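Incident review: delayed structure delivery

Summary: a single-chain prediction request sat in the queue longer than the usual turnaround. Root cause was a stuck worker, restarted by the on-call engineer. No data loss occurred. The affected request and its eventual output are reproduced below so the record is complete for anyone auditing the incident later.

Affected input:
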Amino acid sequence: MDNKGGMTVTDPDSIGIQIDGDKAVVNNEGDNAISNGGTGTQVNGDEATVNNNGKTTVDGKDSTGTEINGDKAIVNNDGDSTILDGGTGTRITGDDATANNSGNTTVDGQGSTGTEIAGNNAVVNQDGLLDVSGGGHGIDITGDSATVINKGNITVTDKDSVGVLINGDRATFANTGHIDVNNSATGMSITTSEGAISQAGSMNVGDFSTGMALSGNNNSVTLAAKDLNVIGQKATGVNISGDNNAVDITGNILVDKDQTATNAVDYFYEPSIGVNVSGNSNTVSLDGKLTVVADSELTSRIYADFDGSQENISGLVVSGDDNTVYLNGGIQLVGEENQLTDGSTVASNRNGYGKTPVINC
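Output delivered after worker restart:
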């Protein structure tokens, strides 16, 4: 079916295009506006293909741009998408689904999702920009053997916002794009066992945020980013929990809280962490470079007292039993002083040395 014009769906339970049957093909060339619980395109059947070439706007709870119920579905989102206030851009329920997102996607608001797949063997190729805020999810997959390949840039901001969420065993995630995470957000949240995770793109992690959270056992994790920078307050670059995971750090990780930020004084003693690994029988290999920058705020000398206070900050933290850490690359602890805009109060506390381990096991 070729839809060369625009489509507007505004009523609850209304559907712009509905097809029941296998091997359906829908080409949406115009702009689509879906709101108030409506659905733009719905296909019920296996081996469906939907091509969205125009701009898509989905606004409101239960609103859906493209919905497919069936196995072996393919959705090509070449046009840009904006998903707001609880809507869903693409929803697929079924196994062996593929979503190719070459257009840019903006997701904002609690309950909003750019691409949602429930089923095994799902594949998402994210080549366009992905911007997630307000508690939304960019990509959300539930099912085993999922694969997400990201080559575009991802920006995730605000509490409860997640760029990529995967829940299922034997997941594969590979990133070569740039990722920015800030303001209590999570870049990637992956719950899997026997998965393969590769973070080769650059990443900046800001205040109260986590770049990647991985939970599960027997996973292979490669951190090959040229620049993985943890610069926020109470931030964590990568958090891994579980047993028998293999973590290979081949790139560069920098942990350096931004002491020029307006909240730097308030969180001076709250540590940021580059990589945190918890669990048993995990193996961590450092073949790249791990740098921790620790600030000291200094004041005048007083006999038999500290000259100021040092922040708390950590590079690699490993906790649990029977874990192994191999140090094959470079580690560096860099000191700096008086980086706060006004560090007089912190300095006058005279707390002395902080907890600044490059590696803490």
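Verification: The longest helix spans residues 344-348.
Action items: add queue-age alerting; document worker restart procedure.
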